[in-house]
Known about the structure:
- The protein has 54 residues and is an all-alpha fold.
- It has one domain (2-43).
- It is built from two helices and no strands.
- The radius of gyration is 13 Å and the shape is flat.
- It holds the Pfam family GRDB.
Amino acid sequence: MKHFEKEGFIGRLHPWFYSTVGTGTTENEAARMAKEMIPFLKEDGVTAIIMTST
């Protein structure tokens, strides 16, 4: 990803990444965590995210 950022294919990468426990997280808990994380990402100007499974 840093390569794509350096080459101008993408804007800039956020300096932090967020991770959760995939198989141990209930749907309700994941929704709660997202509601808590999203305001911080918006405040930092994040306009896109990459979500992967664990």
